[in-house]
Each structure stands twice: as C-alpha cells, then as structure tokens.
Write a structure and sequence with these properties.
Blueprint lengths: L8 H9 L5 H21 L3 H16 L7 H8 L2 H9 L37 E9 L10 E6 L7 H4 L7 E5 L5 E7 L4 E2 L5 H6 L7 E2 L2 E7 L6 E7 L18 E2 L2 E3 L2 E2 L5 E2 L3 E5 L2 E2 L9
Parallel strand pairs: 1-13, 1-14, 8-9
Antiparallel strand pairs: 1-4, 2-3, 2-7, 5-6, 7-8, 10-13, 11-12
Helix pairs in contact: 1-2
Bound molecules: benzoic acid (BEZ) and fe (iii) ion.
Benzoic acid (BEZ) binds next to helix 4.
Length: 290
Amino acid sequence: MHADHDHDITALAIGRWASAHDARLSTIMQALIRHLHGFAREVALTEPEWTAAMAWLARTGQISDARRAEFILASDVLGLSMLVVEMNHPRGGGATPATVLGPFYIADSPLMDYGADMAAPVPGIPLVIAGTIRDPAGAPLAGAILDVWQADSHGMYESQVNSPTARLRGRYTSRNDGSYCVRTVAPLGYSIPMDGPVGQLLSRTDISPHRPAHVHFAIAATDHEPLVTHLFEEGAPYLDSDVVFGTRAELVVPFDRRAPGPTPDGRRCDVPWLLAQYDFVLSPKEVTSR
Ligand code: BEZ
Ligand code: FE
C-alpha cells in the first residue's frame, strides 16, 4: 500500500514504532518521534541544517572511545544529564543531593586507610576532607565505601595525563562511628574538553566551558541508596556558571586554611593545609514488597 504521508508523517511514524516488542521501548520511541518532529517543525529545520546535525553526530561518535565519552559530554552541556539525576534522585528526605558522575570516573581505585593520602606524589596544597556518613535520622553508617576522584591543581584528571598508575583517586571505608577522612591536594576548576564537536559547538556561544573546583564522591552503604555527588570549594570561580549544571548550594563547602599541625586522623601536616568538613547523608533503600 502506498501511503500519502505528506500531512501525517508524524502519526505514521508514531504508529509504526508502536510495534516495539518491549512496552517501555515503544513509549520512549513514540515520545521521541513526537518531540523530534515537533522540534523540526518549530524551528522549520532546513536540509543544510539537518545535514550539519547528522555530520556533528557522526563526529561525536567518531571521537568517542573508552576514555572519551563525547555523547555524555553533549548530554552534560545540554543539561540533560543533570535533569536525569534530578528526576531520579528527588530532593527531600534529608539525603545529600546527587550530581553528575562525569566522564573521568575510573573503577577499582586503590583501597585507602582512614586519612591516607590519595594524592602522593602529586604536588599541591594538602587538603583533608573529613566527616561522617550517616542516615537521615543521624545513625552512623559503618563500612560505607567512599570512592573519591578529582582533578589535580592544574585541573587535569588521571585519564588526561596518561598516568600508568592510579592518580588522585582512592576508595576509603567509613569507621564504626561513620567517620571518614580523605587526604589529598586541593583541586583546580577546569574547562571541559574543547577539542571535539561539543567544544566546537560551545565555542559558537558565550557559554563558559568551565567547572568550579570540586572533588567527586560515589558512596555505597549496605541497605542504602548509592550516592554520586561532588563537594565544591566555597568561593571558587564558576560556581554560578558550571557548564554541566552540577552545582548545588548544599554541596559547596569552605576549604578552611589550617596552620601546620595535627590533622583529624591524628597524623600531622608540616605545611599549611586546608580542611573541608562534610557529613554525607544516604537514604535507606526502599523495600519493595510483593
Ligand atoms: C566532571 O566533573 O568530571 C565532569 C562532568 C561533566 C562533564 C565533564 C567533566
Ligand atoms: Fe570533575
């Protein structure tokens, strides 16, 4: 049968994708077609614009590999990644807000003792991050794993400097009273990678490509919802213009200057250092009874 779909191509396409074998896939594809067609109509998309968009998508795929996630970066700068985080981790209940994972997470970081230095031998101003992991009622969570990673004092991550060994990342375990203590060096804010299709697109705008200085945490505790978040340095540049929309007021903490002397883990620091104190709160897992 020959369909005259000039005037009804949207309905025709939506109808065709209703045949997806999985109900959720059908819902997603039908909504995607409805919004894509609506978008093309709204901006009266021209053929050269469509061709340019296809070429941009192709370049985004071509530059991506195990170390570079350019599509995720595109999602980040469009605010989509943070929207998905917010929808899936609604506020309320007293838990620490979640934020984006970002492309620089590397699994299986070295296990670190309480207060151990995950930066050595990378130079920088010593930074100690200490506090507790607890539930919304204040009960300490013992044995929680804090997977921590960050950029160095030039804003570079391990995968960007091709380090042969783990660099500025480690997995700490909370103690029986829920306390944790991370020793590292102060991170610097950085620009997202600008040498690919996402950077090319951003450079045609006045959007700042920078992220404010931060340390990443992925925290897991038995029977609690996992938490992926950051701590941002109070007063750091770009807190109000984070290119990936990841900043949350509750996650901004002072990096207090301290004179040489004892650190919270009972060790010493012989040069001036910074202290950030933060208590992470994880929600109990919802029990689904059937
Ligand atoms: C990050 O914080 O590591 C990051 C997040 C999104 C895009 C680029 C970097
Ligand atoms: Fe980061």
